[in-house]
């Protein structure tokens, strides 16, 4: 396999490239690199494309954006000759990447409209889509404050805090368990998504569902910022979303805790009844219309 393809794949697996949107674009980029650098026969191309596809799909299990990106690029491949097939893969990958960037910008625009001047926003983990909403609201001149969780165990919240501080946003980092303590100061919660199931449940960084529960209790609106390629066609045909469980070492050194078991699931599911709206690039929608959105993205294809 081309070394750059492996570099991207391992980058996703080891979380050097992370966040559902980024890993989707990186997977499309890997397919593009493969097609551009391929040498061999048409038959070899088809066979190796399948290998690259399987390899990319194996890197992280939860974010459907990765699979939707891979299917988008491969299932739309056209042409009978090797050159036309290669060109088609390159073009599809470029289209996906451009569409993805554009989607995040539109989400930011729509979402920023929903942020009232003077609001205090809570976010969790590090979501480019959620950050785009916050940053566009800030750039439009609204006086906003942001609380963000540190997000154990990978501390993606550090990235979020730094990005917001650099933008000049008034940002406060809190530990994950302080969410309920601060909820009385929060006007709106905005998080991202890795996958949205056909029943409207949102799968996002572990802890998201607890935050949603606390927001619900405090009657604080809970919004999800997500591109339509985060909706999962697979869930329509009955597949369950696999929740990635990562090594215990990410939490603590198990050798220092003889007799102790560790569990480290890195995503959880927030049911639709705790979600006020999902901000997508095609509009702000109720989680209950997830199925209609999936029908539109079904065109990406699904492996049954
Ligand atoms: C990242 C995470 C993000 C979503 C959405 O988890 O849960 O909230 O992926 O991000 P991890 P984006 O760090 O384990 O990949 O809006 O950037 O797609």
Features:
single chain; 304 residues; alpha/beta; Four Helix Bundle (Hemerythrin (Met), subunit A); Rossmann fold; seven-stranded mixed β-sheet; three-stranded antiparallel β-sheet; 10 strands; 13% strand; binds ribulose-1,5-diphosphate
Structural overview:
It is a single chain. This protein folds into 2 domains: 3-102, translation initiation factor eif-2b, domain 1 (Four Helix Bundle (Hemerythrin (Met), subunit A), Up-down Bundle), CATH 1.20.120; 106-296, 3-Layer(aba) Sandwich (Rossmann fold), CATH 3.40.50. 46% of the residues lie in helices and 13% in strands. The protein has 11 helices and 10 strands. It has helices at 3-13, 20-37, 42-57, 64-75, 82-113, 128-139, 156-167, 179-182, 208-217, 233-236, 290-297, and strands at residues 120-123, 145-149, 170-174, 188-191, 195-196, 202-205, 222-225, 267-270, 277-280, 283-285. The two termini are 26 Å apart. The structure holds ribulose-1,5-diphosphate (RUB).
How are the SSEs ordered, and which strands pair?
Layout: H1 3-13, H2 20-37, H3 42-57, H4 64-75, H5 82-113, E1 120-123, H6 128-139, E2 145-149, H7 156-167, E3 170-174, H8 179-182, E4 188-191, E5 195-196, E6 202-205, H9 208-217, E7 222-225, H10 233-236, E8 267-270, E9 277-280, E10 283-285, H11 290-297
Helix pairs in contact: 1-2, 2-3, 2-4, 2-5, 3-4, 4-5, 5-6
Residues 18-22, 63, 125, 127-129, 154, 156, 192-194, 204-205, 266 line the site of ribulose-1,5-diphosphate.
């Amino acid at each position: 396999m081309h070394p750059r393809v492996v570099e991207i794949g391992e980058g996703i697996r080891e979380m050097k490239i992370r966040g559902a949107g980024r890993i989707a674009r990186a997977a499309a980029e890997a397919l593009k690199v493969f097609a551009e650098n391929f040498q061999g026969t048409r038959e070899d191309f088809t066979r190796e494309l399948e290998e690259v596809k399987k390899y990319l799909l194996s890197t992280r299990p939860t974010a459907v954006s990765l699979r939707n990106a891979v299917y988008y690029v491969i299932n739309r491949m056209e042409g009978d000759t090797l050159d036309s097939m290669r060109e088609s893969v390159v073009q599809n990958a470029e289209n996906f990447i451009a569409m993805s960037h554009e989607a995040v910008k539109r989400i930011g625009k729509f979402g920023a409209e929903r942020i009232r001047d003077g609001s205090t926003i809570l976010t969790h983990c590090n979501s480019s889509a959620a950050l785009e909403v916050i940053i566009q609201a800030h750039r439009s001149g609204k006086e906003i404050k942001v609380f963000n969780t540190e997000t154990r165990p990978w501390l993606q919240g550090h990235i979020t805090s730094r990005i917001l501080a650099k933008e000049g946003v008034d940002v406060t980092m809190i530990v994950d368990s302080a969410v309920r303590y601060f909820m009385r100061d929060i006007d709106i919660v905005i998080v991202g998504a890795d996958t949205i199931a056909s029943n409207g449940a949102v799968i996002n960084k572990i802890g998201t569902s607890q935050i949603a529960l606390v927001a619900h209790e405090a009657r604080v609106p809970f919004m999800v910022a997500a591109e339509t390629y985060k909706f999962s066609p697979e869930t329509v045909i009955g597949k369950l979303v696999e929740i990635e469980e990562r090594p215990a070492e990410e939490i603590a050194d198990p050798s220092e805790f003889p007799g102790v078991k560790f569990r480290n699931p890195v995503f959880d599911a927030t049911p639709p009844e705790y979600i006020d709206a999902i901000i997508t690039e095609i509009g702000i929608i109720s989680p209950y219309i997830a199925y209609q959105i999936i029908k539109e993205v079904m065109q990406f294809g699904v492996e049954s």
